[in-house]
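Students often ask why inverse folding is considered easier than folding. One informal answer: many sequences map to the same fold, so there is more than one right answer. In these notes we will look at a single instance of the problem. The structure comes first.
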């Protein structure tokens, strides 16, 4: 991707005198809210008709479900009757105001990753990692993120590991509008993947903001005569739409590669797919933790050691960010929000 490049919708063409709408539409058995033809064709070209129809159908059937979908049994973010109770309890304990202030005080964390297979030309290569933005949960959340990004010095690329939207269903325009505010403060190039709060309908609009979405895809990164690969998978947690096989199709055997995955739950498959680094989010580090940063809940089917901060599985080195945003309630306790600078170093 070249600096300043945008990703317009592909030009739609007709065959002969056939009407445009007859070229490509969701099949009639797909009972999901209407999707405009331009968005459908753009996504069909990128992810394939089968994956697109599956993602749209699962979104329609399960996006608001509390039980029985995804990798974990229970999804508290969709149990809206509990959210008001949580706010009430926090106010009762005199923690609500303090927690809201904590949620808007975003830390900048530094993580150095020493790697044996890293090409020498990429020694010092730095990635700014943002995740779980949930930008539309409150009006002042985007500005808190902008203020944090403005304090960051020097990075080569920016990566976003999903959850742009606050809710798992409903309108997504507010999240895109908020992302439009944040995007000018991110140095190009910017890459992203979708999270379990994001509809696949958002992908074309995010690309038009200058965020190269990796939808089970990979892209080369070049420095001098050396090349490494950055891959990204669709949400592996709730929609289970990840496809590592497709994401690694264009990565030559033996190449150094980095994986963006919304959730760390794919750590085992990523390791055996020969990725060197994996960057994730999703867990919020617990968001509301006991003293000592002990999380009450992480909502991920993975070892707790893999759900916050740096970790290792065989030769795969990973990092799960606590994220910059908040979900359910706009409160953080004993778990500061973060944006992370990952610096790659040669062993």
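Output (designed amino acids):
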């Amino acid at each position: 991707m070249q600096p300043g490049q945008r990703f317009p919708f592909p030009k739609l063409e007709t065959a002969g005198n056939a009407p445009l709408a007859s070229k490509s539409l969701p099949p009639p058995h797909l009972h999901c809210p209407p999707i405009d033809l331009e968005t459908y064709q753009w996504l069909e070209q990128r992810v394939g008709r089968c994956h697109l129809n599956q993602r749209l159908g699962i979104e329609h059937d399960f996006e608001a479900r509390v039980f029985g979908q995804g990798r974990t049994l229970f999804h508290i973010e969709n149990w809206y009757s509990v959210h008001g109770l949580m706010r009430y309890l926090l106010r009762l304990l005199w923690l609500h105001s303090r927690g809201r202030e904590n949620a808007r005080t975003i830390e900048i964390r530094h993580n150095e990753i020493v790697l044996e297979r890293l090409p020498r030309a990429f020694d010092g290569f730095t990635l700014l990692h943002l995740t779980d933005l949930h930008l539309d949960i409150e009006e002042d959340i985007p500005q808190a993120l902008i203020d944090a990004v403005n304090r960051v010095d020097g990075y080569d690329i920016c990566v976003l590991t999903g959850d742009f939207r606050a809710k798992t269903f409903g309108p997504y325009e507010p999240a895109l509008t908020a992302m439009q505010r944040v995007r000018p403060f991110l140095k190009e190039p910017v890459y992203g993947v979708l999270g379990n709060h994001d509809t696949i309908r958002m992908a074309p609009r995010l690309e038009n903001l200058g965020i190269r979405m990796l939808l089970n895809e990979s892209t080369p990164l070049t420095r001098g005569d050396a090349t490494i690969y950055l891959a990204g998978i669709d949400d592996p947690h709730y929609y289970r739409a990840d496809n590592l096989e497709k994401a690694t199709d264009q990565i030559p055997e033996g190449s150094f590669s980095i994986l963006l995955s919304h959730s760390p739950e794919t750590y085992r498959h990523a390791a055996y797919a020969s990725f060197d680094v994996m960057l994730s989010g999703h867990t919020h580090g617990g968001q509301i933790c006991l003293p000592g940063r002990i999380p009450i809940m992480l909502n991920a089917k993975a070892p707790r050691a893999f759900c916050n901060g740096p970790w290792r599985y065989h030769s795969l080195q990973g990092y799960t960010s606590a994220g910059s945003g908040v979900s359910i309630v706009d409160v953080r306790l004993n778990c500061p929000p973060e944006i992370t600078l990952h610096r790659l170093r040669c062993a």
